[in-house]
Design goal:
alpha/beta; Rossmann fold; globular; 8 strands; eight-stranded mixed β-sheet; 26% strand
Amino acid sequence: MSDQARRVQEQFGAIAAAYVASPGHAGGDDLAQLIAWGRALAPRRVLDMATGGGHTALALAPIARRVFAYDVTEPMLRAARGLLRDRGAATAAFVAGDVEALPFEDGAFDVVTCRIAAHHFADVATAVREVRRVLRPGGSFLLQDILGHDDAEAAAFIVEVERRRDPSHMRAYRAVEWKAFLRAAGLTIMDTAVIAKGRPWEEWTTRTRMTPEARRDLDSFVLAAAERCRAAFDFRVAEGRVESFTDRMLLLRADRD
């Protein structure tokens, strides 16, 4: 297991319940689009990689014969199990492990999903190759993650914001980078979408249990940043307080040849 995987475990193990309760993870136009793609594919077996609180696995459960929820953080996996079982998704399976070494046979799945997680991966290229390996020929990878900004200064600003809130954050990738990862792994992009997702500041910072001091420092960092950097993510500030910002989510469907 990589050092980064251990950082993810340390970060999310204690706050799993907050991610189950997170409105931004539980729904939205982004999840609806991902599930619409999944429904059209009518898969039998689905792997939800880095399942987090389990919301994507839950949404896929009525569509697929079997859904495997997979995550490196066992407390998160237990929280996801509780969510799915409470909602009647009795046929879901739960497996712990690293995205860089999936413990499944070649061609085991019709669809692999990964939603709002890849910005934590230490080695995206290896993870995507693993996705391709476990997909059957003609199978589909449905990916959603934060879209990296093309402007270097704006990108550096948001990476600093993210890491002050969550030290396990690596970075978000630009569309051109994702397309390169997918092509290099032998996956062909079939569909794409970009969807804005609002982040209420209080909820977003509280979810990771930032200390009051860290939260004050983060607020000060944002307020002191160049206006063009804040504008790149539609930061809303009122009376000297940060209220919200907006992420752009990149959604991709890529098929194995």
